[in-house]
Amino acid sequence: MKKLRIILIPCMVALLFGPWDITAQQNREQMAAYYYDHGDFTQAAQLYETLYQQGNNKYYYQRLLATYLELEQYREATKLVQQRQKKLPKELSLIADEGNILLKQGQEKKGRKCFEKAIEQITANLQPIPDLAMAFLSIGQNEYAARTYLTARSKTRNKSLYFNELIGIYQRMGDYKAMTNEYFDLLDQQPGMMGSIQISMQRALKEAPDEQLANGVRQALVNRIQEHPNNQNYIEMLIWFSLQENDFRFALEQAEAVDARFPDKNGQQVIQVAQIAQNNNVLDVAADGYRYLLAKGKENPYYFDSRTGELEVEFSKIDKGYSTDSKRLEQLKKRYQDAFEELGKNEHTLTLMRHYASLMAYHGGDVQAAVNMLDDALEIPRLKPQTRDEVKLELADLLLFGGQTWDASLLYMQVEKANKNDVLGAMAKLRNAKLSYYNHDFEWAKSQLEVLRASTSKLVANDAMELSLLISDNMEDDSTYTTLETFADADLLLYRGMLDSAWSTFDAVSRSSLSHPLLDEVLLRKAQIRIRQGRHVEADNLLQRLVDFYPDEITADDALMLRAEINENQLKNIDAAIECYEKLLIEYPTSLYTDQARKRYNQLKNE
Fold first, then answer.
1. DSSP symbol at 569
2. Residue 70 pLDDT > 50, yes or no?
3. Most C-beta atoms within 10 A of its C-beta, which of 223, 480, 505, 587?
């Protein structure tokens, strides 16, 4: 076989030089590339010599020069460069190639002299600049590549030239001081480029291997603000940068400082920081920002946004399980009522109306007040059909919560019928299937859930699959459905907020069997009860038991995600939260929570 290979290769090479010029040219290129990529530079050089002689192709020149250098044939390399220089005297990259050949031979001083010569010959003609810079970059001479672009700037007196190229070089060199100066010098020259600068900087911060760039940017901004205290661009950049670093409190402090120094801004930066903090669930910072703006009075252009935003934040605190009491709840209820009296009930306050209804029903125990509020919402003129159906869906949930199952089912069916081919319709169908499950109509519920498992909504499909499996697994295990019926009763009690009764009913399920397939679900539901009661340590322990004893059940990733959130937000045990997020990512990579867990894991690890 070896002999055959030895015979074939010369034959193949001979064929390459046949009369079919175009085909032969392509074959030579392919064979030359093959030899080059596999380290046979002698064969590659022979082919590239032939290819280069047939034309002044720059690619063939670069490959031929590279093969000469690999073979340490410095005389041939020098001759190649000099011949090309005679033909193309204005091609400055050839001077860099000449210098590289000298460096390869250990002639450092002469090589550097060539590099300096190339830089000196730069003029206002920009045509040779990219090639010269790339020639320097290809041989690892990053500083000379940067000098190439900077010299071109000087010759053309255009300080904004080659911004992205220089940023890339400084990033490669790890010269973060030069990199940040490049960003802010451009900002000085072209303030309108702030958005582009932020995009570039955001990309660089993500790609940075450590905190050096972030620290450099922070220090550079502080220094420039101290030197130019009235430069609003620098302060806006500092606010933006603080938000990128998730330092929302510092961002708000700076936004308020800008507002105090530049009253004509009317709190523009403050409202932006408050809204971004709210979207990132940094609720205390958001609330402080809104209150700051509210103190400016009703004449402030952001009064309405602050008025509604501050109430939304307070609602979120309660809805996300922050500790509360009846007194605080009553105060918040009064503030909502005051807001409706001041701002009215209309499409602009619809979110407030929906939150108030949720607050009254699920936290205040006043279902009728909640239903009345959503009825008012449905009376708002010119409400978009989809928005109206969203409110109907919430109203149906409230009616089910209040025990009016028939009325709830009718509304679910209305919403499903009006939105057959979209997610809202699928959600209505899912909730109606759950209602059938609560009513022990397991066969019907299962048939509806099987359809929903093919839903385009990943969330709906996942919920449908979980409930479908819960029903089907336990219908097979218990032909009388007795335990499943008890569990469904407990589930309905839990949904309706009757927590003590739900706990006792779930206990009855646990006592019915020591090895029933519903036991992992019981642990999950009990943990949810404790969360709603504010007993987070007990909830965490229950979830830990579920993960330890039932790691292969469908509820395991739910338990891990809940544990992570409890430890992060309520128990403030960040190490435990990170451990849960990491375990979820490693052991349950197909979980619905993977993206969310990865985001929180990365943020916590970087804080």
1. I
2. yes
3. 505
Is 485 among the domain residues? no
C-alpha 311/C-alpha 531 separation (Å) is 23
pTM attached to this predicted model:
0.73
- Report the C-alpha gap between 357 and 403 in whole angstroms: 16
Q: Judge whether 599 lies within some domain.
A: yes
Q: Which of 4-13, 75-84, 192-201, 293-302 has the lowest mean pLDDT?
A: 4-13
- Rg (alpha carbons) of the chain, rounded to whole number: 35
Amino acid at 390: E
CA distances from residue 407 to 145, 402, 403 in whole angstroms, order as listed: 74, 11, 9
Range of the domain at 589: 516-606
For residue 209, is it within any domain?
no
CATH of the domain at 574: 1.25.40.10
Cα–Cα distance, 168 to 173 (Å, whole number): 9
- State phi, psi for 290 to the nearest 5 degrees: -65, -40
Q: Alpha-carbon distance 353 to 349, whole Å?
A: 6
How many other CB atoms are there within 10 angstroms of residue 476's CB atom? 9
d(CA 580, CA 417): 41
Number of domains in the chain: 1
Residue written as tokens 């020591």? 514
Residue-wise DSSP of 362-392: IIT--HHHHHHHHHHHHT-TT--HHHHHHHH
Largest separation between any pair of C-alpha atoms in the chain: 97
Helix (H) or strand (E) holding 14: helix 2-16
349 assigned to some structural domain: no
Contact 492, 438 (CB under 8 A): yes
